[in-house]
Fold each of these.
Amino acid sequence: SALASALEEMGVGMEPDVRWGGAVPTEDTNIVLFPITPDERGAKPSAPYKVATLALHLAAAVSASDGEVSEIEKGHLERQLERWLHLGQSERTRLRAHLKWLLLSPPTLTALKKRVSALNEEQIRGIAAFLINVSQVEGGVSANEIKVLTKVYRLFGLDEQALYSHVHAVATEPVTVKSARTGMPSFGVPPKPEAKQ
């Protein structure tokens, strides 16, 4: 706490930060430093921020289950973080640093029971759906990802047998086509192959 407060006085935030629910660093712990503004000094984590860090922790565990987190998975998690508009800008900045730390130090699912017990049913189902989506980013779900998702379902008190139908449902959902908007990148439809004669 003293170290984090001293850094804060110099306009620097750190992750993990025990004042924001992070683990106490050891000499082997990776630390991510990031700039903060003077009005962010002494700020406390909001309830939505705590849920978001738990969701990212679990998502990083799913992504790292194959031994490494691919650039596609990293990009997906970073984009998802930016979509959480219910968080303030300073919390999203801290969350970006927290995600970077999670990706440097792939997390485990141990010691999460207390944090999970604070979630309501809607949050549990929302995070479970988010994690299944994360597991599908590279086009399929690996056996290792299924193992981690099974542990998460157990941790959440969800029916483990339902996991397979949830994974399958996401994989076979119809694709929604949206109308183009000004400024969006365009992708042409490939021409129909010519018939062989």
Amino acid sequence: MSSPQNTYTGDSSSTSFNFAFDYLNTSDVKASLDGTLTTDFTLTDQKQLTFNTAPATGVVIRIFRDTENDSLSSEFSPGSAIKASDLNTNFKQSLFVAQETTMSADAATATASTATATANTATTTANQASTDASNAVSTANQASTDATNAVSTANTASTNASNAVSTANSASSDATSAVTTANTAST
């Protein structure tokens, strides 16, 4: 199937671009710059389009056919003569519209496939983030438990230290009494 479009990239100096597709009417030839439709051109040859201003560097230029499909190119009345050229034009119109529809469907399918792949990647990332968050919560809960246990151990150590100080003070008092008794006995 012949492609009903040609694409180029602007270079800020070129204005004329050739295209390879056939068309029925010059009004069927369209152009877009970075996806925006433009009428800032003329057909300078049967298969050459010239922009009034050179597209900027990096601009995606798309020259395409958009065949009129609201009515037939030629209509026939009962009893009228049918010319081969009129039949051929109608068949070309149908062929061109079918080619353009196929191209649009292919582009839509490619876009949908890309969107699906992006959505699948996002889902995988979200699932991993959920798993990571659950692991982080579990780690935080374990850290909280460990901190509570550490506080309990520190409180026990503090109580034991206080008891040791009391015992030491009591022993000191007993030693002082013993010294006093020994001094009295010595006297």
Amino acid sequence: MKNRLLVLILQNVVLFPNQDVKLEFSNDISKKIIEESIYGRDSELVLVSPKDKEGNVLSLADIEDLGVLAKIKNSIEMPNGNLRVTLRGTKRVHLVDMKTLYSGLIEVEYEQTESTVYNLDEELTYTKKLKKLVDSYIDVNPECPVSLQGLIKNVTNLSKLSDMIAASLDFNIKDKNRLLKEV
């Protein structure tokens, strides 16, 4: 069975696996994508970024071929007509086939990306080193949230740790997209 879901293009947000984000949508296309994903796609969709920095999506070729599979945790229609949605990133996915549906929405077939596998000693060494780097970074950067130390304290999975750190630090969208591509 092929994995096919709808695509939601995010221009100013990068969602990493194991991260939650609350977004509010006012445009009809985004609302339709959310609604169809909830009722016809088990509340799942694929989040992607546009390739160019302005976010102008003119064709399927303008969409990054790596995205994040996301689960819609909740959706609330606001009094102003906007749709407030909480999304949870679950895993990176590689888009292998994209097509535009009759409704104008984009549907993709995807495959889960493969992470580098480390032996237990290597992974432990890398996670310790990464946590020490975060401690040093927090010491010299007053803008970095100190809560990050507590958030990552008991995380032992290197991939999850890296994503949590990347999501928490104040990088621009281009740099976050670059980090997302690092599997």
Amino acid sequence: IIMHQVHYQNFETHESIVLNFVVNAGTPGDKIAGIRWMELRRSGDTDWEIYQEGTYAPDDGLHRFMGSIASDRKGNIALAYAVSGDEINPGLRFTGRNEGDPLGEMTMDEGVIVDGSSAVLGDRYGDYAQMTIDPINNRTFWFTGEYMRFAGNWGTRITSFEFFKDSIDLAPSLLNTPVSSAELSEEEEVTISIKNYGLSTEDIYNIGYVFEGGT
């Protein structure tokens, strides 16, 4: 079941939709709730296609569920969700990725919105959660969700945050050659474009690569 809600952005060069739902990120006998997220894209009159997808489920034994996702005007994606475990009361956390990061990965360290203070005493939890983008600046993420306060009482937490550039952030931006073809040889020259996504000017740097396990 797709969680609330699906978000749409038009970047002029392409359209984008982000969505998420809960999956079992563990084994059939050791179920761990994780969040499967996707970005769909299309350009012009083409059909929608999955541009990237991934499962966010760090290997720490915690359940992550009730996710909510959105993207900002630059294509950065934020994901917030409920979290709980054997020794963790239900609280709220978030992660995200910058446009240009490796596809299918939430690259930002997990942040805590609010820790839970008690267990769920009833049989119902988390009626709502929503991530949305500020309509004024199309940059600020707003999230609201449910968490457990004291003595089995639930509470609502509303938070906002923005993604800022790192000081140093060099990354590949384009594979120039080879161009996909049925006639490629085993000795094609590989050329890429590198873009500085960071705030600092970089004059001296090293570039490396890994292909099929070797450099």
